[in-house]
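Recap from last week: sequence in, structure out.
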Amino acid sequence: MIVITGLDTSRSFNGFRLITKDNDLNGQCIAVNEKDTTDARLFPSVEEAKKNLKDNKKTKTMPRAAKTPKVNMKDMVKITCYRKTKTMRRDKAMAFYLDCMYNSEGSEHERYETIYFQLKDGAMTASDEEDFRS
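Predicted structure tokens:
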């Protein structure tokens, strides 16, 4: 994310707001679509921005913030380990407990292994406690 303070210049061109500030952008220009502010493009100079926007060429779009995927509650599992309960997404929990399982030994390994296989079998709740183990 680029934060620009104290704009040196800002002008409109073909539906885009051209923004420059020499100290922050090193002479570069950001073109922001005035109708869709998520459409922002970075150019090496104002002249290059005008040329590309006039010719309507595809330009390098600035990266947007990643959208957070909607989590289906069916994918959420409740895990009790070391008497602490937390809720996690199944895929994240399986990856976490598989990693824990491979990086531990003895009773700790058995604890993580129990939880991992309960999750792998499709359980909505998993625990390392004796009464949950089969």
